Amino acid sequence: MTIFCGSILMFPDLAFGKEYVVGDEKGWRTGVDYAAWAAGKEFFVGDKLVFIYTTPNHDVYKVGNPNFETCTVPEGTTPMITGADVLTLTSPGKKWYMCGQDGHCSAGQKLAITVQSQGPVPSPIPGAPDNSSASGLSSYCVTVVLLHVVVILLVAMRPFT
Ligand SMILES: [Cu+2]
């Protein structure tokens, strides 16, 4: 258990900041079911979405729900156009993305995801609510490791008789 806990404490970032290529090998284009792609995936703050597509055939707009539903490009918004756009999920909640090229969104080139606030590591913000079981496990691990350190110190400092 101590070794297991030690691994969690030493390598917390292994379980943090996942990168998702939208559509996997199909990338970002028409003819892909992005609802099916997103189904079953869990997105957390700190994860990244990568949109891979041919330019200038496609682009990526981050939109609100009404624009998403109606496939309307929001006025005054600049799309991402590099063909390999990396987007870090910085806040929890529902997120919507669509292609702004004529007819693409209504042909299914749109993605809706829900971002969760906590990854499976302790929150770096002191005093933040800490209610995930994984975080609970890490706290437990910290306690276990600290107890071991205390016991080792006590044994080491015990006067020889
Ligand atoms: Cu497109």
From TrEMBL:
GO terms for biological process: response to symbiotic fungus. Residues 1-17 form the signal peptide. Residues 18-117 form the Phytocyanin domain. GO terms for molecular function: electron transfer activity; metal ion binding. SUPFAM superfamilies: Cupredoxins. Its main location: membrane. CDD domains: Phytocyanin. Pfam families: Cu_bind_like. Keywords: Copper, Disulfide bond, Electron transport, Glycoprotein, Membrane, Metal-binding, Signal, Transmembrane, Transmembrane helix, Transport. The chain crosses the membrane at residues 137-157. It is found in: Membrane. InterPro entries: Cupredoxin, Phytocyanin-like, Phytocyanin_dom. It is a single-pass type I membrane protein. One of its GO terms (cellular component) is plasma membrane. PANTHER family: BLUE COPPER PROTEIN, PHYTOCYANIN DOMAIN-CONTAINING PROTEIN. This is Phytocyanin domain-containing protein. It comes from Dioscorea zingiberensis.
